[in-house]
Amino acid sequence: MMSGWIHLPRLIDKIRLHLAGKLHPDYQDNFTEGFDGLWLAAAGLKAEDFINVVKSTITDGQVGDWVRENVRKTQAEKEELARLILTRGNDTDERKARLKQRKEAYGISDRDDVKSFADLIEFDEKRL
């Protein structure tokens, strides 16, 4: 969370890695889509515009300040985005099947605590 927004710190990190030419190949095809795209749509921003915001700042705090000053969304809108992100993979049959496939690829089919793609990211980054 940053400035009341879920996923914002992760998106900033990915943008900085992209700008430095160091974004992991696994993330390049989906860059500014998926959760990134959900955040951008909820914030009402175009990817290129937000990338330029991050590019013109030195610290993540400066990006957070820019978001607080320029992205005017209600707490309910921010909570809706959080709900979408935290349940993605457990919300439609198609996404449930894709999550099941991803869990099998990771060898964690038996992990009942991995219920969404957000959980899968947490697992992959060794926080779950």
Structure, described:
This protein has 128 residues and is mostly helical. It folds into 2 domains: 1-87, no CATH class; 93-128, no CATH class. The chain contains 8 helices and no strands. It starts with 7 loop residues before the first helix and ends with a helix.
Considering the chains and any ligands shown, give keywords for the structure.
single chain; 128 residues; mainly alpha; 2 domains; globular
**Series of secondary-structure elements, N-terminal to C-terminal:** HHHHHHHH
What is the number of beta strands? 0
Number of helices: 8
Share of helix among residues?
Answer: 55-70%
Overall outline: globular
* Mean pLDDT level: 95
Taking the alpha carbons of the first and last residues, their distance comes to 17 Å
User: What Rg, in angstroms, do the CA atoms define?
Assistant: 15 Å
Low-confidence stretches: none
Strand content: under 5%
Backbone structural class: mainly alpha
Q: Estimate nothing, just give the exact number of structural domains.
A: 2
Strand count, sense and barrel status of the largest sheet are: none
